[in-house]
Amino acid sequence: MESAVKPKKALGQHFLIDESVAERIASTIDPWKGIPVLEVGPGMGVLTKYLLAKGHDVKVAEIDGESIEYLRYNFPELNGRILDADFLKIDLSALYPDGKNFGVIGNYPYNISSQIFFHVLDYKDQVTVCSGMLQREVAERLAAPEGTKARGILSVLLQAWYDVKYLFTVDENVFNPPPKVKSGVIIMTRNDVTSLGCDERLFKTIVKTSFGQRRKTLRNSLRGLFPAGVPLPDSPLLALRPEQLSVAQFIELTQLVSSAG
Ligand SMILES: C[S@@+](CC[C@H](N)C(=O)[O-])C[C@H]1O[C@@H](n2cnc3c(N)ncnc32)[C@H](O)[C@@H]1O
């Protein structure tokens, strides 16, 4: 199909052509009208249009020059609110100074979707809500509870600070060009946790190290984090595999490693 902006594979450009899906995604943040929202990768503005119509205070961050030109021409009301930038490199606290809360939304570029969520996590004290569409497998992973195969690093790191919900699945044929996989829409809302009650850097290291060797029990994958030459503590948590642990158990594990060191 002819498209005003030529889709570029390297930028993960699959333009949404079903307006009803765009409206449904925009509606996910209806309850957050009071805070500004940053849209990642607006492309030709199919989602932006609904965010504006709903009265959100919207800024957009887009990396593709051709899309930016399109937006400038077709959305004059966005004047001064289009960031010609790589979302992953934006200092979001400078964009929303003084610790201001904001939301993030998008039909995200699938090639960098995990990195996008790691970037959002860096601003967890300001990002109150984050929703949007990504490839189904990743969307499922973000929302995966303990005890499921889909659980991974981002599930635990995000769920420590956010309630993550998988909302609905979207078929390939509503995009131009269609992606190879189905898509999923999620929403994450900030929980009321202000501190994990453990060394948060070590918590991250433990989550990443455990899932780096997900078939091993934690006793084997985390051995290197305990002091050498000393027997490991006798904790039932160490007999588990990473996908079996809740956030609270990862925190407990972090405390265990800290107290052993
Ligand atoms: C899946 S398309 C979605 C476009 C549009 N929102 C839609 O629904 O049709 C992803 C968009 O993200 C943009 N993009 C890719 N990498 C980006 C990055 N690092 N920062 C900002 N935008 C990016 C692409 O140029 C593209 O417009």
TrEMBL record:
GO terms for molecular function: 16S rRNA (adenine(1518)-N(6)/adenine(1519)-N(6))-dimethyltransferase activity; RNA binding. It comes from the Bacteria. It is found in: Cytoplasm. InterPro entries: KsgA/Erm, rRNA_Ade_diMease-like_C, rRNA_Ade_methylase_Trfase_N, rRNA_adenine_dimethylase, SAM-dependent_MTases_sf. The keyword RNA-binding applies. Keywords: Cytoplasm, Methyltransferase, RNA-binding, rRNA processing, S-adenosyl-L-methionine, Transferase. Specifically dimethylates two adjacent adenosines (A1518 and A1519) in the loop of a conserved hairpin near the 3'-end of 16S rRNA in the 30S particle. May play a critical role in biogenesis of 30S subunits. This is Ribosomal RNA small subunit methyltransferase A. It comes from Duncaniella freteri.
